[in-house]
Specification:
Radius of gyration: 18 Å
Structural class: alpha/beta
Strand content: 15-25%
Number of helices: 6
Shape: globular
Helix content: 25-40%
Length: 211
Amino acid sequence: MLANARRERRLARRLAKAWRILIGRDDIYGLKWGDPDTCPPLRHVRDTYLIPHVGPETTVVEIGPGGGRWTRYILHARRIYAVDPYPELLAELRRHFDRPNITFIKNNGTDFPGIADESVDFIFSFGVFVHLEKPVIADYLRNMRRIIRPGGVIVLQYSDKAKPLARANDGFTDNSPEDMRAMARECGYHIRAEDTQTLWHSGIIELTPGA
């Protein structure tokens, strides 16, 4: 019975993978690090910190969208600015989601060229700030102040080196919830929400610009 159950589970996994390939989802760059549709912690991030902030009238900036692992949940937004310093990654996103409401922007590291002052309702980034050194994160936060409207929301994932999986990953930078709070406050933000528990190597911080 145990052997049969294991065979059935293996078959189910193979069928699920075949179906994802058939509909093209395994082709999206970034899914190898987790699919928010099937991974419970990422589903929680999606349902709590992404989808509730985006509607048909929302202007969104996504920093480092990769192949669109998270972008696919916000395609109904009025306007999306996909921002990345690497044109190859922007081309990969365009390959999947070349839509009239998406503007592809190559930035120079931490800036937002071509985005008007106080014109953005929501800024989201996942899988990027975990790799950035704290001075670069602080520069990004300062530059976000220009484009985010009063009352707008920013959601960022960041590295938490207090967690064993972050310490084991050399690509994750030295950061912590305490340091992220301090940087956010120094750059003039209010902290709306935090999640230091859901993700196994990182945290989520939700910000809004202060007065």
